[in-house]
UniProtKB/TrEMBL annotation:
NCBIfam families: hydrog_prot
Keyword GTP-binding annotated: no
Coiled coil: none
Presence of the UniProt keyword Hydrolase in the record: yes
Domain of life: Bacteria
Stated family: Belongs to the peptidase A31 family.
Keywords: Aspartyl protease, Hydrolase, Protease
Pfam families linked to this entry: HycI
Protein name: Hydrogenase maturation protease
InterPro entries for this protein: Pept_HybD-like_dom_sf (IPR023430), Peptidase_A31 (IPR000671)
Length: 147
């Protein structure tokens, strides 16, 4: 199955730079041919066309309020979309809104599976390595293979 890993965040704001740090780490790895890695930055709704190609989509982003600082959380797309308010994500809950609006505006093929690798709180190089590994496993095996 075709898979896309989209790393989101602001590399110039330390508290929001986990996604871009994972993107940089993934660029150093040999990935399966069917896995594409994208630096989603702060594109918000501009990411919609990337979600209209079917396959599996894995987001990587900084989160807060899901777990202890310095840990990873893995959520499926429905869990992200169902999250109340914007307290768990930066960018005024942009990812939650993106996933909520996607089925209403999709002109292409909806993803078969959506997951989020959330990096809670301050991050370290080892946590970035861990997030990169989890992201690739999710892209290749899906949620069933990683939970």
């Amino acid at each position: 199955m075709k898979a896309t890993i989209i790393c989101i965040g602001n590399r110039f704001v330390t508290a929001d730079a986990a996604g871009p740090a994972v993107y940089d780490r993934l660029q150093q790895l040999a990935l399966p041919e069917h896995v594409e890695v994208i630096d989603g930055g702060l594109q918000g709704l501009n990411l919609l066309p990337l979600l209209e190609r079917g396959g599996r989509v894995v987001f990587v982003d900084a989160v807060r309020g899901f777990a202890e600082p310095g840990t990873l959380v893995v959520l499926d797309g429905a869990e992200v979309a169902a999250t109340e308010g914007g307290e768990h994500f930066g960018h005024e809950a942009g990812l939650r809104y993106l996933l909520t609006i996607l089925p209403k505006v999709c002109d292409g093929t909806l993803p078969e599976e959506i997951a989020l690798v959330g990096i809670e709180g301050a991050w370290s190089p080892s946590l970035i390595d861990q997030a990169a590994g989890v992201s690739v496993r999710l892209a290749v095996n899906g949620l069933q293979g990683c939970r």
